[in-house]
Write a structure and sequence with these properties.
The protein contains 14 helices and no strands. The protein is mainly α.
Length: 421
């Protein structure tokens, strides 16, 4: 099969190593900065207040996938395969603005049904504005990735992170209200859009003006709706437990759970970096050479495993010390949930490149079906486990669900001989 590890010259020739470097720097700073901000929030506020903040954020994030509507991956794929034009990119941006507006409308319509808490509702409204602005930022990220200019994305991410962390220090010292933290997210989104526009003006003249093209929009819709649904269900899958605990007014449990979940998300970001870095060359290899395609897949697992496996082992065997050191003794109730989420993280890492394969080969509808089944099972598990076991039940449901999704995706790819073992 030629499943040997690819030589280092290939990685530099395909820009994989430079892409990983820039994405690692940006994602590392971003996730660590947000994590430090969360640590400060947990130190300044009670687990219940942080739970309200987390519930509001988790509620709006699935709508970010509606705003993006799967067009980001399409832009990267078309730019990687030289299928783009300025008119296409302008129409893509116009379509992104339309879907973002629809996402905001959906958030405002559903927020009153999910909670009557006035503080949580205000947080939801502020995060809705952040979702709109960040959807525009992520559109430009797709342009940068498609041109393999990850350093431009890194610049934007780092500046946004500095706004959040620096502003967070000032807010917590001078005006420690949880709504003011949400305002910082809104400010970071605005700054991100501004910087992206300036970079686009300098490097990619002409594409960034949105254009209305209903015929092209219908075409994008036909291509992107499966990817959009995958994104929506993925975020629902990742946040359904917090939303259900918050709906049942378990805000303290939401605070505990999301504190340790943030640790998991920092590690998951490493897998995402490799996933984003490998996506453009894998998209090209799918057209050019089957052998290279599978070599890239194997190389993804080798590189990510070398970095992640030692970290996962350490975290799994020393969770109490880590949680107590970072969040304090009031969050030690989340130790078991943390261990279960580490198990879920392992299967999430294994799943990332398989998800990319479905998208690259235009099999996203198949992955959507598998994901929909998994989300349904996850909802059922949460429904029965959360009332009895609270955050531990939520973490167990997450681990079981990620295992099932990975196994079902792998079985389908093997049975259809897309992957040969």
């Amino acid at each position: 099969m030629g499943w040997r590890f690819l030589p280092h010259k290939f990685f530099f020739g395909e820009n994989i190593i430079p892409n990983i470097f820039w994405l690692s720097i940006a994602d590392g700073i971003t996730r660590v900065s947000k994590w430090i901000l969360i640590i400060l929030i947990t130190r300044f506020f009670t687990p219940s207040v942080y739970g309200e903040f987390s519930f509001a954020f988790n509620f709006v994030i699935p709508f970010a996938m509606l705003a993006n509507f799967g067009t980001g991956r399409l832009v990267v794929r078309e730019l990687s395969q030289n299928l783009h034009s300025s008119n296409k990119l302008s129409a893509f941006l116009g379509f992104r603005i339309l879907t973002s507006v629809l996402a905001i409308i959906a958030i405002l319509c559903l927020s009153s049904a999910i909670t009557s808490d006035p503080v949580v509702q205000r947080l939801i409204f502020l995060f809705a504005g952040f979702i709109f602005l960040n959807s525009l930022v992520e559109f430009f990220y797709a342009i940068f990735q498609g041109h393999q200019r990850m350093r431009d994305q890194a610049l934007v991410q780092i500046l946004q992170s500095l706004v959040l962390l620096g502003g967070g220090f000032l807010v917590l010292i001078n005006a420690p209200k949880i709504e003011n933290i949400a305002l910082l997210y809104l400010a970071s989104g605005f700054i991100g859009v501004l910087i992206c526009l300036l970079l686009a003006r300098y490097y990619y003249k002409g594409f960034y003006f949105p254009r209305i093209d209903t015929a092209m929009w219908r075409h994008y819709f036909s291509l992107s709706w499966p990817i959009a649904c995958i994104g929506i269900f993925t975020e629902v899958f990742a946040r359904l437990d917090s939303i259900m605990m918050g709906y049942w007014n378990q805000f303290t449990a939401v605070g505990w759970y999301n504190a340790v979940y943030k640790l998991i998300s920092v590690l998951f970001g490493i897998g995402l970096i490799f996933s984003y870095a490998f996506f453009p060359p894998m998209a090209r290899a799918a057209q050019e050479a089957n052998l290279k395609f599978f070599q890239l897949l194997k190389s993804y697992y080798i590189l990510s495993g070398l970095i992640l496996i030692p970290i996962i082992i350490i975290l799994f065997f020393f969770p109490s010390q880590l949680i107590n050191m970072i969040y304090g003794p009031s969050y030690l109730q989340a130790v078991l949930a943390f261990k279960l989420l580490i198990v879920a993280l392992i299967f999430a890492f294994l799943l990332l490149p398989l998800k990319n394969i479905f998208i690259i080969l235009n099999k996203q509808k198949i992955f959507l079906i598998l994901l929909f089944i998994t989300v349904t099972i996850n909802f059922i598990l949460n429904y029965f486990l959360i009332p009895k076991y609270s955050l531990n039940g939520a973490a167990l449901a997450t681990a079981i669900s990620y295992f099932m999704l990975f196994i079902s995706a792998l079985i389908w790819l093997v049975k259809t001989r897309i992957i040969k073992v």
